[in-house]
Design goal:
The structure is a single chain. The chain is of the alpha/beta class. The chain has one domain (8-206): Rossmann fold. Helices cover 47% and strands 21% of the residues. It contains eight helices and nine strands. It has helices at residues 5-14, 28-38, 68-76, 96-104, 115-124, 139-150, 157-175, 190-206, and strands spanning 17-21, 42-44, 47-49, 63-65, 80-87, 90-95, 108-112, 129-135, 183-186. The strands form two sheets. Strands 2-7-1-8-9 form a five-stranded parallel sheet, with helices on both faces. Strands 4-3-6-5 form a four-stranded mixed sheet. A hairpin with a 2-residue loop joins strand 5 and strand 6. Helix 2 (28-38) packs across helix 8 (190-206). The longest helix has 19 residues, at 157-175. The protein is globular, with a radius of gyration of 17 Å. The two termini are 31 Å apart.
């Protein structure tokens, strides 16, 4: 997709992005689904990843599933707006063309993204974005959520346990970045958190 500078400027002035970030298990994916159901003006940004596709996932809808070589080829060609090694040897990234495709369709973008990736987008598009950090009030609560989620379809429980411990350690680091986001929401009661996010996003889109 080739766009002139003038067209790009017009698209960027009109397009907005809502960036949802937080530790794994904080509830950001559930909240993102809620926002998509409430705001027809929003479209979900599909990220690229090098992890394996899961049985209930669809390429191009949940993620763009890429090989390591393909992912690094896109890095070399400067095709990512942001990318990170979120977990050891597992890479995630947002394609520039995904952003402009959504903006060109006259919609705003919703991101469900890792913390560093969210901050990188905020730095790159400071005038277009609203960054929201979803936080839980204790690591123990986070662990319970991760255990319930990961053990529903457990194929390798021992490996899942290792992944959970890794994500809990990572959550402590991610929480330290919360202050860099525009808004921090403590997700204790999910229904109340959804209401708050809907109000915040409504003000941002229509305000």
């Amino acid at each position: 997709m080739i766009l002139t500078i003038t067209k790009l400027d017009k698209i960027m002035k009109k397009g907005k992005m809502i960036i949802l970030s937080g530790p794994s298990g904080s509830g950001k994916t559930t909240i993102s689904h809620c926002l998509l159901s409430k705001f027809p003006e929003l479209e979900f940004s599909v990220s690229c990843t090098t992890r394996s596709i899961r049985h209930n996932e669809i390429h191009g809808k949940d993620y763009y599933f890429l090989s390591i070589n393909s992912f690094f080829s896109k890095i070399k060609k400067y095709q990512f707006a942001e990318w990170e090694e979120v977990y050891p040897n597992l890479f995630y990234g947002t394609l520039k063309k995904e952003i402009f495709k959504i903006w060109k369709s006259n919609k705003h973008i919703l991101f469900d993204i890792d913390v560093k990736g969210g901050l990188n987008l905020k730095k790159k598009y400071p005038n277009n974005s609203l960054s929201i950090f979803i936080m839980v009030n204790s690591i123990n609560i986070l662990k319970k959520r991760l255990v319930i989620r990961d053990h529903k379809n457990c194929e390798d429980c021992e490996n899942n346990e290792k992944n959970i411990n890794y994500r809990l350690n990572k959550a402590e680091e991610e929480n330290s970045y919360a202050k860099l986001f525009d808004i921090v929401l403590l997700n204790i009661d999910l229904s109340q958190t959804k209401k708050k996010v809907i109000q915040i996003v409504s003000s941002f889109i229509y305000g």
